Amino acid sequence: MQVQVKDIKGNNVKSIDLPDSIYNVELNDHVLHHVVKAYLANQRQGTHATKTRAYVSGGGKKPYKQKGTGGARAGSTRAHNRPGGSVAHGPQPRDYRLKLNKKVKALAIRVALSDKARHGKLVVVNDFAGVSSYSTKTVLGALKALNAPKALLSDVREDDFLYRSARNIHGAEAKSPLDFNAMDLLRYETLIISEKALEALNARVSEEA
Questions:
Q1: CB of 110 within 8 A of CB of 22?
Q2: Is residue 31 domain-shared with residue 104, that is, in the same domain?
């Protein structure tokens, strides 16, 4: 598969070949569903808690005698069916984390990248050299020129100019090719990635496969 390399002003620079093993993978909804489900589950703190009979204060004395009242027997005023009582079958602290194998994560990234490439939502730029300082205006101009208002930007660089410049843009984010996952690719409509970052991403995905 071939893709055009552009500069951040939207001009075509050259064409490059993308490896089919990464950018021509068949769509796999099942894998993407598992990755998204695991990602969202792993964000949950699981600290919710309600008080059971063991933790509600009061209610130590039997409210009335066992027999002779004509009503149902009761052993505590803190039963769940009484005012001020406990909660029956309420949520308790738990761990929601789901484990995903390394190869499944890598496959999900390849599936998401292939879907981006097939639909023209993978934009490769020669570099982000134009972002040489903290400038939200420069990044906004690049997004407009590349016709990608909602995009994930990726580059390999020592400074944080690109990352901090994109931080204030609604619908855009910048991440290293070694950090983003399939959920990031699905969250943003377009992936704008530099050639060096593309090489690093290909090496990462090939190694994890």
A1: yes
A2: yes
